[in-house]
Amino acid sequence: MKIAVLFGAQSFEHEISVVSAIALKKVLKSEIVYIFCDYERNFYLIPTDKITSKRFSSGEYKKDKALHVKQGGFYAKKMLGEEQISFDVMINLVHGRDGEDGKLSALLDFFGIPYIGPRMEACSISYNKLFTKLYAKEVGVNVLPYQLLHKGSNEAISIAYPFIVKPLRLGSSIGIGIVKEEKELAYALDVAFEFDDTVLIEPFISGVKEYNLAGCKTDSFTFSIIEEPQKEAFLDFDKKYLDFSRTKRVNEASLEVTLEKEIQTSFIKLYDPLFLGALIRCDFFVIDGVVYLNEINPVPGSMANYLFDDFDGVIKRLVNYLPHTTTVTKEYRYINSIQAAKGK
Amino acid sequence: MKIAVLFGAQSFEHEISVVSAIALKKVLKSEIVYIFCDYERNFYLIPTDKITSKRFSSGEYKKDKALHVKQGGFYAKKMLGEEQISFDVMINLVHGRDGEDGKLSALLDFFGIPYIGPRMEACSISYNKLFTKLYAKEVGVNVLPYQLLHKGSNEAISIAYPFIVKPLRLGSSIGIGIVKEEKELAYALDVAFEFDDTVLIEPFISGVKEYNLAGCKTDSFTFSIIEEPQKEAFLDFDKKYLDFSRTKRVNEASLEVTLEKEIQTSFIKLYDPLFLGALIRCDFFVIDGVVYLNEINPVPGSMANYLFDDFDGVIKRLVNYLPHTTTVTKEYRYINSIQAAKGK
């Protein structure tokens, strides 16, 4: 099997995606075709032996083959005509904007390119923290209370200190700040409003237990181990960045069986059917024995490979369970009947 | 100003889009550039004087100039190289799949093409009837009670007869059926499940008053007149189809001023900021003096031009108020610092 890995793009997490892509080289046993999307959203075919972070930071990738996308796949220009880049399936490995907001999913669906990754609708729900809350509540998964603040408004805050301020969209802790008292508020809001016109506030619970679970659905659900991520206060962007290059298995959290089951049940409620076709990681809080969703990562760093015993096997299985949309039959029934009525 | 109209695409409402596009020719005073997306999602530049429904149903459009999309716009191949199709803004006039589900919005955003139409996130909310309900409730607009049914499950129905069965996604009444008693249920479900694996059921209220309001936000809100659509039982696809070719002003519904204001207030709550950049039509029910959202049409048939006094003026104003996303600065800060630490 030939797997294309799509990475980079116009995202604040562009660099994380580059690091994720390099990490996959060590854990995927299939032949990999690397397709890089640069900050300007131009596509390049990167030879697998040239996959180093420096190739991108230096701009050397521009010497590689430029690609364009159209019906059926990615193509490179040739002297005469063009050639299609051959692969069986693509992994969307773009984190943040373009990859997790749904743009690339839409593009791949529109052009009929099979891919592992969240579909557009799933992205819209997980990328927007308000929609994630509404959705989680609807499917019966607990979330922390929240309040939205809009840029330029003077809304009173009804959540007690300490709380977390988050841009409504984006992932990877970008623009997020903990506010312990009023004097820290203005700065935290300034930072968060740089990334979005709406921010979400939720209580900050010191020392809360966090558990990460990744998985996907094929003929049944495949779950990773549950990890309790190491953190100081909370994981900031720099630490998460380093985290994303991981390819080694981590230690399993020691959990009561009932709690483990509850975390898995919450994952299933969130996943099925919205995230079909994707391998996602859900991050949960456990407070007084109750499970709460923190966030859904529909394109987790390095695909959370370090949480699986047989990551390569999971990917190969998932390829056979990608969702398909109902077919639209080409027809001009109404137009033809009007034409006929007109006697033309 | 040169306005490109994008229409057609792989949608059950493809034909409606063709009719909508033809209707716009009569009401837009600007020069129009017609870009057709066929059922196979190939793009063509259609000369404005050849815009007749027969050109598409006969397949003659294939003689027109084939286009491809990439960074910056749509391009046609020339003997040597290619030429960009010039226009100032594009109107997304694709109804249903591709146009209202967010795929084309994503494509246009990804390739940096300015357009009038709902953004991807707005599409995901309005295209999925469950998400529309959750969103409307969140912003303080009433919705009818509902229940979801999943294909293959044997869920008990808790909503009393008569009720309406709707595929979870899609618009324009496709796949929708009224169920008055149990013996009509199986057939209605069969039809709806042909279009989606999930269907939504809501009470059918005979003789309910329906009011349609279109509008958009520029420096302030511009509203159309409020129309009370004519209907028998409820508007089916055939009638809606004919409806979409309308270019004549309709009669304003006679409403109490307070009710008119309440409908406009509900529209504002739904529109701002999610639908910025789009001219949408919201369809409301009024039951015992209370306003309920029925549905949001983010790409209404023929852009609801027949509801506006000065449709051309509204479009020209809206062009100056299209939303912009925050810029992602190209940088390789993390990768460079790692490179530096390695002493390379």
Automatic annotation (TrEMBL), chains A, B:
Pathway: Cell wall biogenesis; peptidoglycan biosynthesis
GO cellular component terms given for this protein: cytoplasm
InterPro entries the record matches: ATP-grasp (IPR011761), ATP_grasp_subdomain_1 (IPR013815), D-Ala_lig_Van_CS (IPR000291), D_ala_D_ala (IPR005905), Dala_Dala_lig_C (IPR011095), Dala_Dala_lig_N (IPR011127), PreATP-grasp_dom_sf (IPR016185)
Reactions it catalyzes: 2 D-alanine + ATP = D-alanyl-D-alanine + ADP + phosphate + H(+)
Pfam families: Dala_Dala_lig_C, Dala_Dala_lig_N
GO biological process: cell wall organization; peptidoglycan biosynthetic process; regulation of cell shape
Limits of the ATP-grasp domain: 133-327
Subcellular location field: Cytoplasm
Named cofactor requirement(s): Mg(2+); Mn(2+)
Described function: Cell wall formation.
Family membership: Belongs to the D-alanine--D-alanine ligase family.
PANTHER family, A to Z: D-ALANINE--D-ALANINE LIGASE, D-ALANINE--D-ALANINE LIGASE B
Name listed for the protein in its UniProt record: D-alanine--D-alanine ligase
Taxonomic path: Bacteria, Pseudomonadati, Campylobacterota, Epsilonproteobacteria, Campylobacterales
Gene symbol of the encoding locus: ddl
